[in-house]
Amino acid sequence: MSNVGPLTGMKVIELAHIMAGPACGLMLADMGADVIKVEKPDGDDSRRFLPPDINGESAAYMMMNRNKRGIALNLKDPDAIAALRTLLDSADVVIENYRHDTMAKLGLDYETLRSTNPKLVYCAISGFGRTGPYAERGGFDLIAQGMSGLMSITGEGPGRPPVKPGAPIADITAGFLAALGCVSAYTHAQKTGEGQMVDTSLFEAGISLTYWQSAIAFATGQAPGALGSAHPLNAPYQSFRTRDGWINIGAANQRNWHRLLDVIDAPELGTDPRFVTNRDRIQNLAALVPLLEGYMKLRDTNDWIARMEAAGLPAGPVMDVCEMHRDPQAIARDMIVETDHPTAGPVKAIGLPIKFSETPGGVARPAPNLGQHGPEVLSEHGYSQEQIDALKRQSALIVA
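-> structure tokens emitted (400 positions)
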């Protein structure tokens, strides 16, 4: 069972744990790369993110590590480091999210590895990047979200506590940025034979998500605050309560504003001087929202959506995660997939969000049990069965 996709033939060694690094490896694996995940003897920490579990296996670990092969090495053993070095000497990409000096202490830093593998793309994901005054700090998604400004623009409004978006978006975005960096550097290496360091961070990932708010701050000199579900530049563009739930309405330009007024039969709002232009609506949003919500509460969500779709007005329900999993569009786009895990059995996962017409990627294998593919991987790299057995006896290679 092998991965397929546009990156078929790329060999990736993932020395990463929990979220950002594994998200990078996941994207590359879904696009066809052979991603070999190297774990410590007790495994990626996300194996212990319990509950929830499926037949004793961490749901969090299985989500982030399907489509990869797994090997577990005790890097306190010189023979294990030598085995890892063998893997790295023929790799196209290595992903790591250790603290800044960990790989150097193991003799596996970029400068050392490039001496024997000049085409290697070395991707380092950290809290704050490998340069600058914070380079030696550890980093977590929560810290990056706070320092990047994201938590100041998330929440219900002035005077309310700072709010972290529900998803670990700095972690996930850093992983996706790292994957883009890896593919870009790999393309360069394929053309020139020259590898390079790819360096990104959770902090930079968070900053990159503030484009609109940073534009406002650069232009005005003032930091924008939280607006709930509203947009800082367009109105009305937010959630409204209906008779039975919530609906998102995207009346983000003048044409859609008038479509909304037609749907709710409120022509008087179109001539109200407070709401004539987008600038007027932004400045008077506090007055506009309760007026619109008064109309929205007259009908159920699905009723409004049908009417808005008929009028060409962008709208959609606010669904919970389970509702999203059942949505026919998510299913049609292969965003809900299933693998057959050797211990957990059938396990659902999120699919590849990029579609390719000629080289479709996808999910080909479940997440590995701890060390599941160790003997297989080492055999592919020239190790004899006797050498593999010796590594297992001395606990340099762990096969659960």
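The first strand starts at residue 11 and ends at 15.
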